[in-house]
């Protein structure tokens, strides 16, 4: 009986770990998408004369830092749960 309970506990922990990993991936993709939107908005504002080159550069730097840390899967159109 103890072996069965140990296996059940291990399976539950694995499922919990996989669920947490998926949530982390979704959050990272959302953050990347938000940074990409911010870059687009900054660039658009700069081109219209209502923004600044510095704001565009700051948005680009933030996006590049995110990609360096978490990868660029969100740029390739991979959607969580798809």
Short description:
This protein has 82 residues and is an all-alpha fold. It has two helices and no strands.
* Largest sheet report: none
Structural class, by secondary structure, is mainly alpha
Query: Helical percent range?
Result: over 70%
Shape: rod-shaped
SSE series:
HH
How much is the average pLDDT?
Answer: 91
Radius of gyration: 20 Å
Distance, first to last CA: 39 Å
How many helix segments?
2
Task: Please report which band the strand proportion falls in: under 5%, 5-15%, 15-25%, 25-35%, 35-45% or over 45%.
Answer: under 5%
Count of individual beta strands = 0
Spans where pLDDT lies below 50 across 5 or more residues: none
How would you describe this structure to a colleague?
With 82 residues, the protein is an all-alpha fold. Helices cover 79% and strands 0% of the residues. It has two helices and no strands. The chain has helices at residues 2-48, 53-70.
